[in-house]
Design goal:
The chain is an alpha/beta fold. The protein contains 9 helices and 10 strands. Helix 3 packs across helix 4, helix 3 packs parallel to helix 5 and helix 4 crosses helix 5. Bound molecules: adenosine-5'-triphosphate (ATP). It comes from Falsiruegeria mediterranea M17.
């Protein structure tokens, strides 16, 4: 039986009188990529924020590998395997690309800087970080300061950091937004590689139809904060209700 890695049960958040996420119950099994779609303001980012712990739920639960994590903070959720793509604000702007990545790998491995182990572990960490940078095609920028990276390269580094963290649940929020057409395929190929790992699950907030078609095993649709549809891409896309009410204008232009 496929293991459920992440689950939200009646997950809800209210901002004053506004219900931004409305009793969303959803299970995310290992080996699946779920695209989360819906019109602007539907609650996609807020749902992500509730899962990653950036905001606290008003009601309902978030369960990771069978454990209730609803009351845990961002760092503890991350330590337990919940990985949300890093934003530039989570990085150290005055450290290099390689140094940033090495820090996240080190944090995952819980390695300290013991005097005698430092040299060895440093070499290992550098090798692992360099390998990831090659995969995201950032190896030639490894010594560049994060603050000096182009937008496209920053986005690649965000994905590299997530791979370095190696979480059970990968969460991507429009990972190719603002990237050039030449750069985006590198990121999409990497997400395809990640989803091929059947012990992981991937959540992807995405507006671009072609990206959804290429990557998604399943689509969930949020509308006014509530779960409006959940199923295989072809089924959800074909649904007249979804096309008209939730996807029409929003996704057509892509
Ligand atoms: N901190 C907040 N305080 C008050 N209202 C909020 C807050 N965060 C989000 N909202 C509201 O909750 C609703 C859902 O917003 P959210 O950003 O999650 O939508 P979205 O589906 O991610 O939209 P988009 O596709 O435009 O990014 C919106 O009406 C938004 O204005």
């Amino acid at each position: 039986m496929t293991q459920i890695l992440l689950e939200t049960d009646a997950l809800t958040v209210r901002f004053g009188g506004h219900v931004a996420v409305d009793a969303v119950t959803c299970k995310f099994p290992a080996g699946e990529l779920t695209a989360i779609v819906g019109p602007n303001g539907a609650g996609k980012t807020t749902y992500f924020n509730l899962i990653s712990g950036q905001i606290a739920a008003s009601a309902g639960t978030v369960t990771l590998k069978g454990q209730d994590i609803t009351r845990l903070g961002v760092a503890e959720r991350c330590r337990r395997g919940l990985g949300r793509a890093f934003q530039l604000t989570n990085l150290f702007p005055n450290l290099s690309v390689l140094e940033n990545l090495r820090l996240v790998i080190q944090a995952r491995k819980h390695q300290g800087f013991g005097l005698f182990t430092m040299a060895d572990s440093h070499t290992e960490l550098t090798a692992e970080a360099s390998g990831i940078l090659e995969r995201v095609r950032l190896d030639t920028q490894k010594d560049q300061l994060v603050s000096e990276l182009s937008h496209g390269d920053q986005r690649k580094l965000e994905v590299a950091m997530l791979i370095g963290l190696d979480p059970l649940v990968y969460m991507f929020d429009e990972p190719t937004a603002g990237m050039s057409v030449d750069e985006a395929p590198v990121i999409l190929d990497l997400i395809a590689e990640i989803k091929a790992d059947t012990s992981r699950t991937v959540l992807l907030v995405e507006h671009k139809l072609d990206v959804i078609r290429t990557l998604a095993d399943r689509i969930i649709v949020l509308h006014n904060g509530a779960l409006a549809a959940d199923g295989p891409p072809a089924e959800v896309m074909a649904s007249a209700v979804v096309q008209e009410a939730y996807m029409g204008k929003e996704l057509d232009h892509v």
